[in-house]
Structure formats: structure tokens, C-alpha cells
Design brief:
alpha/beta; four-stranded parallel β-sheet; globular; disordered N terminus
Length: about 130
């Protein structure tokens, strides 16, 4: 995925381009989405069991917290993928202000490279404010 030199412009452009690059081409995730959010994976076996017992297949939004590398989420994402579609949130809006555009692009590239085969949808921005 050649992103770097071509995306050095506006952060808004980055969001549009990354979301279109990372959405599944297969159209396998249903629309509208029914989903849940997890941001703490300490009880992963219980989380996976609970999701698996729901009456329909959900989309689980996993918040990839700052300070953790994508690889630290690999096993948990694979387990959740067994019972759910997966939406990966690269950075929660609360922490966006902590990243430069370059840092955000590097984080995105690392997450896509490490988790791209098990994440169905990438959430590359939420609660975006234009300033």
C-alpha cells in the first residue's frame, strides 16, 4: 500500500483515502451494522463467549489504545473474528490530539500491516472536528 508520499496533504484527505483503501472489497459485512464496542480485552474468553451467544452476528468495534502496538492485539482480534465481524479503531477521538499526522499515518500503516487480514472495517476517525 503506497500511502506515504501521496498522502502528505490534509489530514481530512487521509481519512477519506484510508477508509476507502481499507474497507472490504467483498462486501461481506452487512449493512446496516449491528455492533458492540470493546476497549478492554482483559476477559477475552468471556467477551468471545458472550458475543458468540448473541442471536445474530455482530460487528465488534475494537478500540486499539495508545501505547500498545498492533501486535499486542493480534491474538484478541483473531479470537473475536471467530464470532463476529471486526471493526478496528486505530485511535479513539479523545487521543487524536496526541498524534501528529505522521505519527497517525505510521500507526495506521502498522495496524493495517499487522491486523489487516482479520479486520473487516477500519474506523480511521470518529467525532472528527474541523478546526
Amino acid at each position: 500500500m503506497a500511502k506515504k508520499g501521496f498522502m502528505k496533504g490534509s489530514p481530512v484527505l487521509v481519512v477519506v483515502l484510508l477508509s476507502s483503501l481499507c474497507l472490504p472489497a467483498s462486501g461481506q459485512v452487512p449493512s446496516p451494522l449491528d455492533g458492540i464496542t470493546v476497549d478492554n480485552l482483559n476477559n477475552l474468553p468471556e467477551i468471545v463467549a458472550s458475543i458468540g451467544k448473541l442471536s445474530q452476528k455482530m460487528t465488534t468495534r475494537i478500540v486499539y489504545n495508545p501505547g500498545k502496538k498492533a501486535g499486542e492485539y493480534r491474538d484478541a482480534t483473531v479470537e473475536i473474528k471467530k464470532v463476529s465481524y471486526v471493526m478496528g479503531e486505530i485511535v479513539d477521538s479523545f487521543y487524536m490530539k496526541c498524534y501528529t499526522v505522521s505519527e497517525y499515518l505510521n500507526r495506521t500503516e502498522g495496524h493495517v500491516d499487522t491486523l489487516g487480514d482479520v479486520v473487516d472495517i477500519w474506523e480511521v476517525g470518529n467525532e472528527i472536528k474541523v478546526v
